[in-house]
C-alpha cells in the first residue's frame, strides 16, 4: 500500500470482533486473565493497551520500523531513547536542537555520566572530528530547530556504524510522509507526536520507532519499567490525526513555499530560513533524502521593535509556542523554545531578539500572506 492508504488501512486484516472501523478507546488499566496457563494479549496498560498498540503499529509501518512505542510526550520518548546509553558513553548531537532536548542532554543526561559533544551536523567533517573511542551515539534533527540546517542522514549513519555507534533521528519536522530516516540507515527515530502526526494542537504525544527487533526489545523493556506511556484517549486522537497527515503536509508544504518566497521580497526581512528555497544551504541533500520541505520557516527581521510589532499584530497567525498543527503559529525562540539556551550561545547562533519562527498551517495562503504583510509592513 502507498503511504496515504497506509495512514487509513494499515490494519485492515486485523479488525476486532465487532469489526469497528475506528479504533475504539480501550479505557482499561488492567485486563482479565483467561486462565492460569492461558495468556491474554493484554495484561496491564503500562505494558500494552489495545488502543495504543494499534497506533504504535501504524507508526512503525509508516516509518518502516521493526516496532514503535508511544509515550505521553516527545520529551518522554527522547528520555526513554537516551536510557539505551550508559554512563561513560559519548554522544555527538546536532548543536541546533529542540530546546527541550538540549536541556535534557546538558542538565540531566550529562549529570548522569553521559558525555556530550555538540556539532554542526550539517558539516560531515565536523562530526568526524568529534568521534572518540567511546562514541556510542550520533543524535540529529534535520531540518534543525530553529536554524533549519540540513544533515545528511546517510552520511551520519555511515559515520556512526563505522565506530560501532547508533544513529538517532528526531523526525518531527518532516514526518515519515516526507522523510524516512530508518530507510536511510538510522537505527532509531523519535517523534514529538504533538506536532504534525497529531496535527491539531490538542494532545501531547511522543514516539520511539526502532529500526530493528533488538532495539525494539530494549526500548520496550525500558518503557514498561519506567512508564510514561500514551493514554488511550490521546492514542485515539493521534491516530485520528494521522489519517489526514498526507493532505495536511501537502497543503502545509505548498503554503510554506509561497510564504517563504513572499518573505524574501520584503526589505524588513533580513534573512529567510526555509529548506525549500533552492538557494538555501542543504537544498541538494534535502531534495535527495526527503520528498518535501515541511512547514517551518524562521526569519530575521531588521529590528527588535519590528519583531515585537509582528507578534502583537498578527491576527490569523497566533503568537504561540509549538508547531505542526493545522493552525499557523509564530513564536519568539529567544523567549520561548530556546529560553534555556545561554544568551551568548544563542546570539552566536543567530537566535537573537530579531529572530522569529513560523509554523505554517493549512489556512488559505492568501490570508496568511496578507496577515504577515500587515503585521510586518503596516503603519502604526
Ligand atoms: C516539540 C518537540 C519535541 C518535544 O516534544 P513534546 O511533545 O513537546 O514533549 C522534540 N523534538 C522536536 C523537534 C520538537 O519540535
Question: Which features does this protein show?
Answer:
380 residues, 5-stranded mixed β-sheet, Aspartate Aminotransferase, domain 1, 12 strands, 7-stranded mixed β-sheet, Aspartate Aminotransferase, domain 2, alpha/beta, globular
Describe the structure.
- With 380 residues, the protein is α/β, with parallel strands linked by helices.
- It has two domains: 240 residues, Type I PLP-dependent aspartate aminotransferase-like (Major domain) (Aspartate Aminotransferase, domain 2); 133 residues, Aspartate Aminotransferase, domain 1 (Alpha-Beta Complex), CATH 3.90.1150.10.
- It is 38% helix and 15% strand.
- It has 14 helices and twelve strands.
- The strands form two sheets. A seven-stranded mixed β-sheet has the order 1-7-6-5-4-2-3, with helices on both faces. It has a five-stranded mixed β-sheet with strand order 8-9-12-11-10.
- α2 packs parallel to α9, α3 packs parallel to α4 and α12 crosses α14.
- The longest helix is centred in the C-terminal third of the chain and has 20 residues.
- The mean pLDDT is 96.
- The site of pyridoxal-5'-phosphate has 17 residues, from α3 and α4.
Bound molecules: pyridoxal-5'-phosphate
How much strand content do the residues show? 15-25%
- Strand order, largest beta sheet: 1-7-6-5-4-2-3
Main beta sheet, described? 7 strands, mixed
Q: State the order of secondary-structure elements, H for helix, E for strand.
A: HHEHEHEHEHEHEEHHHEHEHEEHEH
CATH fold naming of the largest domain = Aspartate Aminotransferase, domain 2
Regions with little confidence, pLDDT below 50 for 5+ residues: none
| CATH class (first level) name of the largest domain | Alpha Beta
Question: How many H/I helices?
Answer: 14
Indicate the percent of residues in helices. Answer: 25-40%
Q: Write down how many β-strands occur, each being a DSSP E stretch of 2 or more residues.
A: 12
Distance between the termini: 54 Å
Using the alpha-carbon principal axes, give the shape: globular
CATH superfamily of the largest domain: Type I PLP-dependent aspartate aminotransferase-like (Major domain)
CA-based gyration radius? 21 Å
- Tally of discrete structural domains: 2
